[in-house]
Amino acid sequence: MAKILRVIRAVNFFAELRLMLDCVLGSFTNLFWCLLLLFFVLYVFALLLVQGVVSELQQEDSEVTVEEVSKFFPSVPASILTLLECTTGGLNWGEVHLLLAKCGSYLPAAFIFYILFFVIAAWNIVTSTFVNKALALAQPDLETLARQQSLKDIGDAEELTAIFAEADIDRSNGISLQEFSEVAEHGRFRTYLRIRGIDIKNAEVFYEMLRTLSGQEEVDLKTLVSTLIRMKGFATSIDLHSLSFETKLLGRRQHSFMVDHARSLRRIEDLV
Predict the structure, then answer these.
(1) Is the separation of the CB atoms in 74 and 113 below 8 Å?
(2) How far is CA 267 from CA 48, 53, 225, 253, in A?
(3) Taking CA 168 as the corner, what is the angle to CA 165 and CA 174, rounded to the nearest 5 degrees?
(4) Please, are residues 107 and 52 in contact by the beta-carbon 8 Å criterion?
(5) How confident is the model over 57-88, as pLDDT tens digits?
(6) SS3 track for the chain
(7) Could you report the per-residue pLDDT of 216-238, keeping only the tens digit for each?
(8) Is the overall model pTM greater than 0.85, yes or no?
(9) Using CA atoms, how far apart are residues 243 and 145, in angstroms rounded to an integer?
(10) How many Å apart are CA 162 and CA 104, to the nearest integer?
(11) Residues 6+ apart with CB under 8 A from 124
């Protein structure tokens, strides 16, 4: 069974089937406690009704007979089954109520209360328990979230590649500053970026930054697309720490360069 679930988990097509199987397998504990609750409710009311019916039969002026009582309440286990049938459609509870009505007002009132309590309270409690469990199990795990994010990034990368491919007039597989400026002013491109949480305040500065990092006259499509994908949303804590680390590393390198440069100047001065 575990191997089957792993195969289903690996195939995205069976995502809904996997969710239902997870909910079924994860609800066995809830099922046990819910059945225990229902059995307790049925047992209490069955015991109450059986005692009341037996007390009524002991009365000399009783209107009910043993045959009528034996049909619905011959014993406590049979009474539990009778009460369960009355609330699940297996038996017309009106017939049971007519029998109990001959025993005074106490037993029919208790039976009506049982029907209302079971239908309104007990069933809703059981249903809400299973729904809460299903909602908890329906939350995607880390693997599913990672796969969904990966698929979304791939789709966004394909759409961005198609947009820049249209702007690449000379088919050089790269985007020049003029081509990027024209694309950045296009309403479709801005709307696309805004929907996906990508914000570019100054297209020229952004392009020059990429061109400086790449060291080429034009920025290739892969670099441009991957950079835009990484810019989605707000900066995370790891992004800020990475930026802080890179800044400190650059500062150390610059300090080392200045020290070496100062030493070289002093050597030149000594030689002169």
Answers:
(1) no
(2) 107, 115, 48, 21
(3) 95
(4) yes
(5) 888 777 788 888 888 888 899 999 999 999 88
(6) CHHHHHHHHHCHHHHHHHHHHHHHHHCHHHHHHHHHHHHHHHHHHHHHHHHHHHHHHCCCCCCCCHHHHHHHCCCHHHHHHHHHHHHHCCCCHHHHHHHHHCCCCHHHHHHHHHHHHHHHHHHHHHHHHHHHHHHHHHCCCHHHHHHHHHHHHHHHHHHHHHHHHHHCCCCCCEECHHHHHHHHCCHHHHHHHHHCCCCCCCHHHHHHHHHHHHCCCCEEHHHHHHHHHHCCCCCCHHHHHHHHHHHHHHHHHHHHHHHHHHHHHHHHHHHC
(7) 667 777 777 777 776 665 555 55
(8) no
(9) 26
(10) 82
(11) none
Cβ 53 vs Cβ 73: under 8 Å: yes
Torsional sign, CA 35, 36, 39, 41: negative
- Both tokens assigned to 184: 């950045």
- How many residues can be counted in the chain? 272
Spatial separation of the C-alpha atoms in residues 96 and 260, rounded to whole Å? 101
- Residue 130 has phi, psi (to 5 degrees) of -70, -35
- C-alpha 130/C-alpha 261 separation (Å) is 72
Q: What letters, b where the CB count within 10 A reaches 16 and e where it falls short, cover 56-71?
A: beeeeeeebeeeebee
Please choose, from the candidates 143, 124, 62, the residue with its C-alpha nearest in 3D space to the C-alpha of residue 99: 62
C-alpha distance from residue 6 to each of 22, 29, 133 (Å): 11, 22, 21
